[in-house]
Amino acid sequence: MSTLHEFTTWEPLLHILRSAHTATPGALGGHVAGRIGTHAYSVPMPWGTMFTMHGQASDAANRRPEFDAVQRVRGALAEADADGASFVARMSPDGPAVLHLLDFGPAAEVEVSGPLPGALVLVEGAVPEPWRRLPDPVPDAKPSPAADPAALESFLRERLPDAIGATAEEIATAEARLGIPLPDELKALYRVTRARWDDLADDEAMWHLIETVTCELFPLDELYIADAPSRHSPWRFAAMETVGTPPGAAVQGLVGSPGWIVFGNSDGDRLAVDLTPGSAGHTGQIIMLSHEESVSAGLVAGSLTELMLRLPAQRRSAPRTEEPPAAARVNIRSLKSVEAAAHPALEVLSIGVWEGEPLSLEPVVDLPRLRTLTAYPGTLADPLEISRLTGLEYLALCPQDWRVLLDADMVPRSLLAAGIEVRNDVDPLPVVDLANEILAGWDRPLITRTTLEGSLGPVP
């Protein structure tokens, strides 16, 4: 047993939390909960949650004791080789304290901003449908007429006369690692420069390289395939995403593709050569993957030649379609009924803040592609209607609605993941009990709880 599970490790933090919350009338009548992680932590204080992603407390001089107390726990996490621990504490002004440590395990995703579990993954390794989608074949796709590996190489050698290029063996090694041949333009680029920073004489040479190739170019051993697993997103967000490729699109609407070879960085976004274009695109076109999004990519240029020689873009917009959206929101600001959301292509239905009568799911019962349903508390007229949605992969409900389904033994067996919709200020322990009941129904590893007891002494 590591020091993570010793009361003394947490005692300084508990003293700070008790002192802070004693000033709030009735605060110690309930619980205090948070999460300490190796890269982020969330600790509740009366004036607002103390939260950081970088290990530096805001207003550090005034809050040094809090920061030191958190670091004490982080030291125990490192000793235990653990990424983090959620905690729930109940403390008395007279001294007794009970601390519950929660280990979410492999089946519950972690929410870095709080003590509650994220999505429950009911099938090991399962991912939402957009992450399983592969590119459609486009057998007639061809390189852009402007693609010219020889002209590209000549231009780069003129602009980068002192660059050290990659050998044929180094290029072959990269291809073997990636499991895909590099397109001719990309080979031409790396024959001129292998893009290793230690090859460059100084910062001026580095900026000249970036300006020439229009991005921060990755070395050969850092090229990677932007397939779907490379764009990981937590289930509760990923399940809400939809992808699709309209007719006449240049870039296929995907999370990722085995034909997207990432070669550079531009302000945090990734540049890739696209070998699986849409019907209006070109093999070898250049696309950008936004660091702010988990799906799709945008067209940048028809080829590396066009990008680096700054040739005029030859783009064609996809024709606009009037198809209803694959994701629909029913709430006081969006659609006003489930009927208005229902259509055969609907994949994601989200029912949010609602002021009218509870809603029936009858209009979406037979929809063939509906895979995600989320519903706020009190919005469903009959939660048991969910059992008729036979294609659901992800379901997020409040505890009361989950209770109805569990007691009736009518939780859809098609589910791959589940979410429990609660506020961050609720007691996490009943939520964890409910989560474990759901996980047990799929024979998945449970969230474990370690209870520590001790005394903090009376409040001074």
Q: What is the helix content?
A: 25-40%
Share in β-strands: 15-25%
Oligomer: single chain
Side-by-side strand order of the widest sheet:
6-7-18-17-16-15-14
Architecture overview:
It is a single chain. Strands 6-7-18-17-16-15-14 form a seven-stranded mixed beta sheet. A six-stranded antiparallel beta sheet has the order 3-2-1-4-5-19, with helices on one face. Residues 51-58 have low confidence and may be disordered. A hairpin with a 2-residue loop joins strand 10 and strand 11 (269-274). Helix content is 25%, strand content 20%. With 460 residues, the chain is an alpha+beta fold.
List keywords for this structure.
7-stranded mixed sheet, 460 residues, 19 strands, 25% helix, alpha+beta
Please write out the topology.
Elements: H1 7-22, E1 32-37, E2 41-43, E3 50-52, H2 64-80, E4 84-91, E5 96-103, E6 108-110, E7 117-121, H3 129-132, H4 149-159, H5 168-178, H6 184-192, H7 203-213, E8 216-217, E9 224-225, H8 235-238, E10 260-266, E11 269-274, E12 285-289, E13 298-301, H9 304-308, E14 327-330, H10 338-341, E15 348-351, E16 372-375, E17 394-397, H11 399-407, E18 417-420, H12 428-441, E19 448-455
Parallel strand pairs: 14-15, 15-16, 16-17, 17-18
Antiparallel strand pairs: 1-2, 1-4, 2-3, 4-5, 5-19, 6-7, 7-18, 8-10, 9-10, 10-11, 11-12, 12-13
Helix pairs in contact: 1-2, 4-6, 11-12
